[in-house]
């Protein structure tokens, strides 16, 4: 189940707001310019599906969001707990950074934790199957896939190097909890 928790950036142990309701999550995130929505596949997506099969199941939404936001590249990333580079992949974006274009991800399966740092607040969004999140360019954030990552996500890009993170050098991400993926996801 999707979850949003909002903290003061000075109080990582005490959420000021918590919700599992998709509409409420979308409303709260919209206040800081972040887009959140839920999608449903137009056809079943089986375990082990190819990227082409995954994208075919969500083609209408992929085409809509690409046209609305000017994306030129769409791909599928799949990370499993047995990936030999899982620790390296996890560590890539654990520190606070931003991108020069919107970071848009749709979770086909599994989960991940986006944590945004905006206006003295920290917005922790657990994204799960069927969640789309669009983080505006320049928004400082970090992403944690957990110690045993398991997710399939569709990624959207305006430019081939849009995923490159520009790190802020702060330690704020280390002060907030890491993602401990609930069992069964």
Automatic annotation (TrEMBL):
Broad enzyme group: oxidoreductase
Required co-factors: Fe(2+); Ni(2+)
Record pathway: Amino-acid biosynthesis; L-methionine biosynthesis via salvage pathway; L-methionine from S-methyl-5-thio-alpha-D-ribose 1-phosphate: step 5/6
Site (May play a role in metal incorporation in vivo) residue list: 96
InterPro entries: ARD, ARD_bac, RmlC-like_jellyroll, RmlC_Cupin_sf
Keyword terms, alphabetized: Amino-acid biosynthesis, Dioxygenase, Iron, Metal-binding, Methionine biosynthesis, Nickel, Oxidoreductase
Keyword Cell membrane carried by entry: no
Catalyzed reactions: 1,2-dihydroxy-5-(methylsulfanyl)pent-1-en-3-one + O2 = 4-methylsulfanyl-2-oxobutanoate + formate + 2 H(+); 1,2-dihydroxy-5-(methylsulfanyl)pent-1-en-3-one + O2 = 3-(methylsulfanyl)propanoate + CO + formate + 2 H(+)
Sites marked Important to generate the dianion: 105
Residues marked May play a role in transmitting local conformational changes (site): 102
Entry similarity comment: Belongs to the acireductone dioxygenase (ARD) family.
Name of this chain's protein: Acireductone dioxygenase
Lineage: Bacteria, Pseudomonadati, Pseudomonadota, Gammaproteobacteria, Lysobacterales
Gene that specifies this protein: mtnD
